[in-house]
Amino acid sequence: MSDPNTAWVAIIMGVPGSGRSTVGRLLAAELGWAFVEGDDCQPPENRAKLERGESLDEEARRPWIEALRARIAAHLSAGTPAVVACAALSPVQRERLRVDPQRVRLILLQEEMAMIAGRLRTRRDQPATSGAPDGGFAALAQDMPDDALVVDVGATPDAIVRIVRRWLFAGTAGEAGADRPPVGKIAGPDTDIRLDGLIFPETPRWHEGRLWLTDRYAQRVLTLSPRDIVETILEMDDRPGGLGWLPDGTLLVIAIETRRIYRLVAGRLELHADLSDMLGWPCNDMLVDQAGRAYVGNYGYDVEGGAPLVSTKLVRVDPNGRAMTVGGPVIFPNGTALTADGRTMLVAETFANRLSAFRVTAEGGLEGHRTWAEVQPATPDGICLDSEGAVWAASPRTHEVLRILEGGEIAARLRPHGIPYACVLGGTDRRTLFICTAETSEPEAAMRSPSGRIETIRVAVPGAGQP
Fold first, then answer.
1. pTM for the complete prediction?
2. For 169, phi and psi rounded to 5 degrees?
């Protein structure tokens, strides 16, 4: 881009520990814009003070602000859009950097100060910067202008980038508007939003003419009718995982943390199987076949604690509640799909970046483990099958929903509004792809700022098999 009339600058501000540089670099890379680290514009005497751990007063900051202003003006004049990461600024300083208020956007990363202070105490990778904690905290107390964006940094950096990007380009369709920047490398979303206001939707199923799903952190199971009527089917004391049905129509649902499967009978939950003695870590998704056999995924290791990857096996629970391990080794088995003939089961190994296949025996065993597709860098989460044997897979890491052919060829890529975590083909003709999305999978951040949605798109090839 070289037109000075369409060049934009996004200034991402925050105190040390807020992730302003990380988010800035990610955003710049995704947009194809230049990245400017604000502290690179500090004069030598300021850098010396910062290296000694000294904070900068207003007088010391003035030459830095002027140098940064000149850098921003140069990008606008040259027609080269940029993302600038800098310390939290006072209102006067912010306005000084807005060389052209219509083409310089302000974004503030904000989090509870105690949390940032705790993070700073544990950081050893960087020296002090111009945004010393006390000054940064005070600046955050100032009101931001009405046309700025304030983002809660409880979300992951990738999620924050998506929030910022969508805010920057709201209302555009590939062209620069009077008050929005040009889209550049970013393509618009491919999907329609069918339902929003959820916390973290997961495990979608099309059953008896309705979409069934869980709102995991709200600890409930709900349905969405073709007329967009939402009904809460049950609420739990645990986070619900996979859903499925016994041959007589009884709903089965996983309790993730307590590692149990319950059945819903006359509006009450009854224990179907207790897997806590078999599994040391939480359960995950579940597929129930036509015979009522439930195949349950599980973490296999301390994911949240950052432990090294460890393989595990699926657990098969027969209709009578008897449980046994089958089909391994797999790493973080997640979404599961069964072909229409019931002979092949596919498992998404999220953190191994692959889909694995098993041959299903007449007794429900899983044999002949093989890699069905390597999909690096994608992280396949929830999956479903179509009638041509392709797999639709939600990939949170790459923010895409992929149509994958056996062997790993990507036949189609969809970019929803939010980060996709699961998908299923449904509707009367099974040509509607329902996608569960959210801006973050972090429980606390999701509860603070519910961003869960059901997004849809019509596809050419109908669904097949399960789910």
1. 0.65
2. -105, 15
